[in-house]
Design goal:
Elements: E1 11-14, E2 21-24, H1 29-41, H2 44-58, H3 70-85, E3 88-94, E4 102-108, E5 113-115, E6 123-125, E7 130-134, H4 139-142, H5 149-160, E8 161-166, E9 169-172, H6 178-186, H7 190-202, E10 205-213, E11 220-226
Antiparallel strand pairs: 1-2, 3-4, 5-10, 6-7, 7-8, 8-9, 10-11
Helix pairs in contact: 1-2, 2-3
């Protein structure tokens, strides 16, 4: 006996970083299971694997998930989630005017976008001669949970350096070893390191501003939600 198959609708979105248009579908039960199992595990590493698998499935394996910046992946997942269980999510947000009252707030996921900071660049000039070209953190760089916070930071920085330039000479990531990059980073001054930190602080992010009223004081509040976890 051949059972009927339900036709799954498809949608289109534009990847924020590349402006490439891709086709995707909502969650099916198999993706919901992946997500629930990851949530039960309560481990960041499991959630990252679930995020990767769900996006891969729902974009028909047409997207190179591991090569996309995290903000692209978060945006794609949010769009898939919106079409799967509804565009509006109910959140409880802490009112900043009194610091104790929580307000029930509805957020339309269709209005959430990746915000690009004006003047942001992936090219960092450290000295007159030496510079670095950065790439954005990808999903395979984020699973560093076994390390300390400091090791995580340096690990992400190391993996995000795409090129090192010295005058007209360009050193590609494949050209230098782990020892080379460690020695290079250890030789930087605090000022150099602050320039690198600025790259991460100003890089594109999934961000949305929410305005709502404190139910107790009746004062208007404004909060910026940032990152995928803020919307769940």
């Amino acid at each position: 006996m051949t059972l009927p198959k339900i036709v799954t609708p498809t949608y289109e979105l534009e990847i924020p970083s590349s402006k490439e248009k891709i086709t995707y579908r909502p969650f099916l039960v198999k993706e919901e299971k992946i997500l629930l199992l990851a949530q039960e595990a309560e481990k960041d590493s499991e959630m990252l694997l679930a995020l990767k698998q769900i996006i891969n499935n729902c974009t028909y394996e047409k997207v190179e998930v591991e090569k996309l910046p995290m903000f692209d992946l978060e945006y794609i997942f949010l769009q898939i989630r919106a079409k799967s269980v509804g565009e509006v999510v109910d959140l409880k947000l802490l009112c900043e005017d009194d610091g104790e009252t929580y307000a029930d707030v509805q957020v339309n996921l269709d209005e959430v976008d990746v915000e690009f900071t004006e003047g942001h660049s992936n090219s960092i000039q450290l000295t007159d001669e030496v510079g670095i070209i950065m790439s954005y953190p990808q999903i395979n760089m984020m699973d560093l949970s076994s390390n300390s916070g400091t090791e995580n930071v340096f690990g992400i920085i190391k993996n995000s350096i795409n090129q090192i330039t010295e005058g007209e000479t360009v050193y590609e990531r494949a050209d230098f070893t782990e020892k080379d990059i460690n020695e290079f980073l250890d030789s930087l001054t605090t000022g150099h390191f602050e320039l690198i930190q600025e790259f991460f602080e100003t890089m594109p992010r999934l961000r949305h501003e929410v305005k709502f009223k404190n139910p107790k004081t009746k004062k208007q509040n404004k909060i910026t939600l940032e990152g995928l976890n803020s919307f769940f």
